[in-house]
Structures are given as structure tokens and as C-alpha cells.
Amino acid sequence: MAVAKAYLTVEGKPKTDKIEFLYNPESFSLSKTNTWESAPAPGRGVTEAAYKGTAPAEMSFSIILDTTHKGTPVTDYTSKLLKLMDPDKTLTGSSDDDINVRPPKVTFHWGTLDSYESVITSMSFNFTYFSGAGVPLRADVKLTLKQYDRTSRFGPQNPTSGTPRPHRVHRVQPGETLDRISAQYYGDSTQWRRLANANGLEDPLALRPGTVLTVPEQGA
User: Fold this and answer.
1) Are 75 and 68 contacting, i.e. CB atoms less than 8 angstroms apart?
2) What's the pTM?
3) How many Å apart are CA 209 and CA 105, to the nearest integer?
4) Would you call 57 exposed, middle or buried from its count of C-beta atoms within 10 A (0-12, 13-18, 19+)?
């Protein structure tokens, strides 16, 4: 079974014009905050807390961008992501002046999961590998998205479709091979083909450090 790629869809762009990640996040976090306040009063103990509202949910995750196998600059991808934080005058409701212009909203997708319609509040890049000519080939990217709309939706696109079989992920370390990773998770180094098939690896010997592999459960 092919591994579903995580991607972003962008406001004002066709859904087919998505930004697909080269590698899936190893994990992502989702947080939501309610505000409760209580006013201290002289001579009294703890006063009753009053609900003051709910803050937008925030989601954050890290991804790896690696173009070592192509030899092309990884900045081809980082530039595309950075552009999502630029104000876009073509969006509906924008005016010719800069007062009523904003960056586009985005939605995070991964398999059957859809996020809230969100805005990107934070993005950072750490370039970690370069060619001999100084061309950046690998970058660690951190993204933080804040909920924009009021919907409570965050989860499968089609709740009736069932829950997919869960799987683990493994980030490849320097010097690791598929048979060693197979022995670690399955107790059997000969099961490396399961990993190769699950991750669409044409050359199992060409594992790049930092690559995130899907590790199917036994029997998957």
C-alpha cells in the first residue's frame, strides 16, 4: 500500500495545486486553550471561576525537506513555503491598499485527516546539509498553524470510512540499514522487504539519514 503524503492546500488556489511534503511529519501537536478567571476578594477564599472564552486551536509540526537525491537546491521548496506568509492582494476581500491585505489561509491534510482552516503564524528553517558548491540540500522545517474558522472539525474527512490500521514511524540514523531497522521492530532482519514496499523504496541500500520511514504493524 502506498504511503499517504501530507500536504497543504492554499486559499485561492485549486485543490490540485497543493504543496506536498517530501517526507511526512514524525508527529504533530494540537493545543487548545480556554480562559477562566476568578477575582480575589478580601476575607474570602477561592472565588468561583468565570468562563471568558476559547482561544483558537494551534497545531505545530516539523518536517524534513531533502533534495540530496536530485542535487537541486532545497530552497526551491522552502521558498514556496515562505511565500505562504506573504500578503496576497488577489484574495477575496482584499483592497488595493495594504491595510486590508493578508496572507492566505491553509489547510493541513494527511491521509483521511483534515485540519481546521488555518493561518501560518510561525515558520522556521534550519539548513543542515550542503553540496560541495555550498548549495543547501536539506532543511528541517518547523510550522505553527492557528485555527482561523469557527468549525470544530479536526479529523477524518469521512468518519464512516473507518479508522486505518495504525503504524509507527522511524527516523533513519547515520549508518542504519533496512535489515537492521527490520530486526529492531520485527525481531527478524529478513523482513526488510516489508519496510521497502511500505515506503516505496526502489533502492533499499540508499537510505538517507533523517528519512522518516513508515513501519507497518505485523500482518499489515
Assistant:
1) no
2) 0.65
3) 33
4) middle
